[in-house]
């Protein structure tokens, strides 16, 4: 089905056929736009070179053009329906997927959708001020592209809430605009989404590590027996690939620039040459990785076991797994702390599914670190960058309340306090990084702390006017 752009809300869900739903969403739309005006990008711009979805299939799904940000066509785009699709796991395995929400799973499904929906506008709020210090027009454009798509991901969840959850769904859709990142009274739901993203190194780390949690969570919701959720997540994942790209290549370019400066001056402390030292990059990795690990929930969780058995949330690449997809007998090994030491526990695999997904995520994160070390290697440096132990700096799950060093030793409180500044960004590190954040808005120019990208967007050169201020 094509996307209907003649409607006030572009969509491929036949919104025109459902007047009540259309009216409800059209009354939410101005509230969304008001939220965008108040909490979205703080830098005023004329227009931005953005991609907009024009189809949901494999080929040529996006169209690029200069668009004034508030006129971006946020819409509702679900991946194509597969009429033969069957539930791939859990107690309803083999049955046709659901086009409606079964009464007994209503509360759980709504909760998953609300948690997913809450993260999307949260990230826009966190990134609100970054436009004021963009290192280039190319980067500024990528920031705004990520922002409009996170806004669209909010639309994706709000559509489900309005279309399938009645009154309480509409109330939750309203509440998604009322909680705010970092707010004292009504914060966002998950920890990482109340942290600050005050500088561009944080932004690149966030899009690498935290958007990547999004990729894995969406991957599990894509498997859902509730077909509209599965289809909406499938299309979101397509957009998500660009967010991963921004993070991966963003950190690449910081590492590249740091390596150049280290070689040029034969000095590790590149601060005096306007760069970001490797040990500071490592601390930012440690921070963003550990808060993102918290997003997977506890290593043992009855919530996740129930979601799986009910068919609401599957595993990463569920259909490629070679087991019974029920996990009633299976056992998994998860880390834990026992008598002040790291140990392992054997548990029913069903209750360990958060740890299973986290394992997939960690393996993916390793590829980024390898890549950054290869960049260092090409300058005759390193490898020095690494991921800290999964127990490092954790607030959720088995490691919460313990102190674990990056190399995996359980520490006493005083040992942690004495060493934390070597592992996590200090006030001094943050001040230095912030001091480098001065906007560069001239086409083809770039800030001194980051290397230019290898190529532009949509075949355009780096010096293209991606944003008109
Ligand atoms: N912060 O049973 P447990 C994205 C709560 S990112 C605060 O282990 P469960 C994006 C938990 O809710 C992807 N609270 O948790 C990225 C539970 O509360 P209750 C977002 C937390 O349910 C970048 C209690 O602690 N999508 O898309 O197994 C930019 C016990 O926990 C946290 C999803 O997360 C935390 N970090 O798993 C833009 C998918 N962690 O029940 C967008 C939907 C746990 O005691 N969510 N708690 O009140 C889920 O699948 C699950 O809710 C979670 C938690 C994986 C988050
Ligand atoms: Fe998203
Ligand atoms: Fe994203």
Automatic annotation (TrEMBL):
Transmembrane segments: none
Gene behind the chain: boxB
Name of the protein: Benzoyl-CoA 2,3-epoxidase subunit BoxB
SUPFAM superfamilies for this protein: Ferritin-like
């Amino acid at each position: 089905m094509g996307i209907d752009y003649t409607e006030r809300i572009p969509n491929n869900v036949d919104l025109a056929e459902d007047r009540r739903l259309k009216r409800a969403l059209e009354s939410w739309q101005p509230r969304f736009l008001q939220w965008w005006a108040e909490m979205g990008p703080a830098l005023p711009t004329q227009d931005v070179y953005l991609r907009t979805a024009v189809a949901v299939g494999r080929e040529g799904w996006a169209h690029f053009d200069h668009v004034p940000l508030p006129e971006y066509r946020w819409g509702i785009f679900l991946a194509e329906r597969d009429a033969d699709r069957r539930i791939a796991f859990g107690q309803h395995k083999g049955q046709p997927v659901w086009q409606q929400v079964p009464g007994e799973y209503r509360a759980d499904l709504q909760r998953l959708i609300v948690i997913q929906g809450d993260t999307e506008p949260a990230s826009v709020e966190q990134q609100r001020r970054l436009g004021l210090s963009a290192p280039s027009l190319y980067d500024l454009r990528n920031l705004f592209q990520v922002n409009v798509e996170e806004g669209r991901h909010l639309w994706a969840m709000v559509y489900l809430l309005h279309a399938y959850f009645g009154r309480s769904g509409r109330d939750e859709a309203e509440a998604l605009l009322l909680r705010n990142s970092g707010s004292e009274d009504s914060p966002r739901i998950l920890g990482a989404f109340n942290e600050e993203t005050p500088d561009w190194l944080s932004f690149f780390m966030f899009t690498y590590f935290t958007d990547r949690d999004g990729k894995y969570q969406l991957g599990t919701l894509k498997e859902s027996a509730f077909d509209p959720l599965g289809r909406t997540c499938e299309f979101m994942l397509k957009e998500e690939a660009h967010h991963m790209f921004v993070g991966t290549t963003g950190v690449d370019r910081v590492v590249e620039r740091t390596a150049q400066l280290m070689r040029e001056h034969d000095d590790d402390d590149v601060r005096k040459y306007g760069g970001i030292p490797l040990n500071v990059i490592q601390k930012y990795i440690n921070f963003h990785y550990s808060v993102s690990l918290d997003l997977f929930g506890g290593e043992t969780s009855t919530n996740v076991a129930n979601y799986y058995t009910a068919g609401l949330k599957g595993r990463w690449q569920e259909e490629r797994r070679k087991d019974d997809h029920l996990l009633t007998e299976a056992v998994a090994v998860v880390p834990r702390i026992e008598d002040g030491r790291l140990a392992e526990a054997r548990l029913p695999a069903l209750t360990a599914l958060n740890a299973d997904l986290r394992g997939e995520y960690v393996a993916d994160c390793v590829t980024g670190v390898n890549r950054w070390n290869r960049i260092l290697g090409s300058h005759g440096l390193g490898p020095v960058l690494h991921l800290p132990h999964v127990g490092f700096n954790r607030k959720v799950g088995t490691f919460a309340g313990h102190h674990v060093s990056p190399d995996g030793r359980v520490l006493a409180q005083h040992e942690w306090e004495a060493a934390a500044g070597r592992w996590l960004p200090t006030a001094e590190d943050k001040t230095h990084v912030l001091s480098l954040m001065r906007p560069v808005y001239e086409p083809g120019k770039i800030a001194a702390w980051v290397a230019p990208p290898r190529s532009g967007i949509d075949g355009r050169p780096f010096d293209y006017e991606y944003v008109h201020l």
